[in-house]
Structure formats: C-alpha cells, structure tokens
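Researcher: Next sequence.
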Amino acid sequence: MSGLTFQQHEALRRLNANIVTISETVATDKDDNVITYDLDAVNAEVEAKAYQEKRKLEYPLIADQLDDLYHNGIDGWKKTIKAIKDKHPKE
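Model: Next structure:
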C-alpha cells in the first residue's frame, strides 16, 4: 500500500472504479494504464464520508442493539441511534 490512508484508498476507488493499483500520485487500471488523480478531490471525498466512520466507532455492537430493542423497544433503540446520528450528521 502506498503512503495514502485506507480511507484515501477507498475514496479513490469510489471516484474511479477502474483503478487496480495505487501509488503516491499515480494509479493504474487492469491494463497498467496510468490514471493520475487529484489528491485534493480524494481528500474531499474522504471528508464527505468521515461522518460514517465516526458513527461506526460509536454504534453499539449488534448484540447490544438487540438487547436494547428487547428491553426498551424500537423507540428506545431509535433514541440510542439518533443520538449518535445527531452527534455526527451528514455534512
């Protein structure tokens, strides 16, 4: 893997589905054709999806969510999830 972060790799692949390999400033497709990319665009894509990563870190484990559903019903579970979504809104 290049010096890019995992999130940057994911963003770059979302921006161009033809990319197979990635280096610091150049990516290639399956035929080894060079695909240059704009790191600013990649970082903008990462930032646009950052709320998802933050939410993932705070969501309770599925087993805990099921327990919440059992003990507090759907409204209690929704309240738990909504608090996390409100803390990390889509931007």
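Model: The first helix runs from residue 6 to 15. Residues 68 and 74 are 8 Å apart (CA to CA).
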